[in-house]
Amino acid sequence: MVDPPARNILNNNTPRMMKLHRNLLPVLVAGSLAQQGLAFCGFYVAKADATLFNDRSEIILVRDGQRTTITMSNDFKGDVRDFAMVVPVPTVLREQDIRVVDRSLFDQLDAYSAPRLVEYYDANPCQRWDYAVMDELDRAPMAGAAMKEVREEQSARSRGVTIEARYSIGEYDILILSAKESEGLKDWLIENGYRIPATANEVLDPYIKDHLKFFVVKVDLERMQDMGFEFLRPIQVSFESDRFMLPIRLGMANSKGEQDMIVYAFTRTGRVECANYRTVDLPTDRHIPLYVKDRFGEFYRDLFKRHYEREGRHIVTLEYAWNVTPSWNGVKCDPCVGPPPLTAQLTQAGVDWVGPNGGANGNVFFTRLHVRYARADFPQDLLFQVTPDQQQFQGRYILTHPAQGDLSCSAGQDYLEDLYYRRKKEVDELATLTGWNTWDDRRYIDEVKGRMTPERRNGLDAPVIPFRRPGGGQGPGSMLWLIGLAALVFGAAVHIAARSRALPG
Amino acid sequence: MPDMLRHLVPFIRRDARHAQVLLLATLLGYGLLVMHWSAELPRYAVLLGTCLAMQTVAVVVLRMPWSSLKSALITGLGLSLLLHVGSLLTAALAAVIAIGGKCVLRDRGKHIFNPGNLGIVLAILLTGDAWISPGQWGSGALLLVLFGSLATMLLLRVGRVDVALGFLGTFAMLQYTRTVLYLGWGMDVLVHQLMNGSLLLFTFFMITDPKTTPNAPRARLAWSMLVALVAFLLTEKVRIQAAPIWALFLVSASTPLFDRMWKAARFEWSIPLHGTSSTTTPLA
């Protein structure tokens, strides 16, 4: 567990303080922090990081006026020699517009913003205080990739492809291409060892006609070995353009399946949201049963899947939004899963308005979006817009440990009764969020009864555990049908009624 | 049920705004219940409250009819469905501009800008604290069913179908030409662009405002096509999100010219139940 910078924690003006239960005592960090009596809400014990999702890529987007910086990292798992990447870009990039950055940048941003599990410990109402410990989870690094070499310019000309620029940056050989027609570009790419799917034309063609250039990357294996890197490092490009979008269609040309993309976005003003798909908040601040702690990864994967299906699949999910301006004194996470990005990391990500000592010339607002996309649901590339929305958001799931010790006093019995019903709610919540069958979770609820006096126990309502099918649920889609249908019926009724009035008699 | 309809039908027929309020409120309810916009309740309250308060002032000071409160309610609902704000003060400002603009910016007794449109555009320009989320409704053929069916009966009632069809038809043709014919994207991309909930909301509930569209049918058609052309250029050339809102604002300034070139009777909201029909309200 990495302690967040002290100034963040010490600030009591937590923008999104959690409402504490009557008997709830937040976990206190051992040592100095505990003595401060902080308004530190809950403790992070696990995170649902991006490594949970298989076919995934991660992107850092920085948008400042017309300037965009995109850093791309993808989980290429094959032989590095086979690695090749083709990205449509709006302009011919100059050498200084392209950089290779450290993979750890992504890991840090992921760790900082991943949905989190927090733990609270109930105080014993019959005694005074109680203490707690904390846990930590580890994270897995990423896989790498490789490449071949670039070939002739003559063949390019004959195919209507122009090599606008050619750079060697880090372990990468980079070409900027423009093309007259998709067939020639596709042939040239295949000829030069880029694995382009046969169906790529239908996507390449619109990009060519829309005057986009192609940023084409391969790995120089020798240079990579010389540099001693085992994995492919992320590539960063910057350009000026009025377009603020991510071309996802090319990546879907050869894939019918679902892919996950995590976008870490930075702006001066506020949240980034999708302009042509619905941006939906992740279900957050939910109380879930204690036993989820060991299965948090699985829990989040199922939660995300259910959420995505319920909301109708054509969505972008907001997982995190926060002001991360280095010079800002507010709390930067609540609680922190990882440390907030430091000035050096922001600069590396392309946030160029942050001064060397953290003095930002304006704010730095961070947004984490999670897109699960498949060809059928996402016909159009993702368009984004920067908003002035500074509202903070995080994905957070809460565990509550019961009070320990003797609870035989009257307040203690009240507490147990309360706990019993709370646990019922937690189990219900778990079923709603994940679609898990929670029928067997009765024991978790019933164990509270063991600590109650017989009179109290008899006064309890029988627990009704909802049984839910995994997946499914009523989405906006089905509701739309209902409302649409109701409107049609209503409209018809009004017409018929109006007509009958008009008839004499 | 038939008994309820017997009361409801005359109520809706008496004034097209009754239906409009019902429909917009349904959409807002849909957003609250299905799309989870409940965190926005204070914003809706401020927008609606300020619109109604401003209109009340206008009624008292400018001696407008009390029934004009219905229009203010529609403006407030329209703002709630489209405008997002960072602070509630900005929401109040947008509402003040919307209703204030209606009372002040007038040409020969008719207000120039759609109040909701003016409120949205000026709030964004003046404060930098407001925005439109064109993606908030999502996109899908179902939305067309919803908005289309809800709105058609309303439009038939106030006779502004020409504006909606003129705008949407022209915009769709332009997008089809560029996206499908020129760029070569598949039809699904075009459908996705056109089934955008915000675009449909705009088409059926904002541009069709009978008070701020030109009076003559021909003028209206030309005018709505001009809005579509400007919206298309803003989308594709300037790459502005929610371009139709900006296009309507720009073109509205020229509405008085359209009214001077093509003359016709002005639209009035309330129609006597058994009155004679007028050119602008075919179903009345």
Question: How are the secondary structure elements laid out?
Answer:
The complex is a heterodimer of chains A (505) and B (284).
Chain A: H1 6-10, E1 24-26, H2 32-36, E2 43-47, E3 56-64, E4 67-74, E5 84-89, E6 98-100, H3 104-113, E7 116-122, H4 154-158, E8 161-169, E9 172-179, H5 182-191, H6 201-209, E10 213-219, H7 221-227, E11 235-240, E12 245-246, E13 259-267, E14 272-274, E15 278-281, E16 286-287, H8 296-310, E17 315-323, H9 343-349, E18 365-373, E19 382-386, E20 393-394, E21 396-401, H10 410-434, H11 442-446, H12 454-458, H13 476-502
Parallel strand pairs in A: 3-13, 7-21, 15-17, 16-21
Antiparallel strand pairs in A: 1-7, 2-7, 3-4, 4-11, 5-10, 6-11, 8-9, 9-10, 12-19, 13-18, 14-19, 17-18, 17-20
Helix pairs in contact in A: 5-6
Chain B: H1 2-14, H2 16-33, H3 41-62, H4 68-82, E1 83-85, H5 88-104, E2 106-107, E3 110-111, H6 115-127, E4 130-132, H7 141-158, H8 161-182, H9 187-194, H10 197-205, H11 217-238, H12 243-252, H13 255-261
Antiparallel strand pairs in B: 1-4, 2-3
Helix pairs in contact in B: 1-2, 2-4, 2-7, 3-4, 3-5, 4-5, 4-6, 5-6, 6-12, 7-10, 8-9, 8-11, 11-12
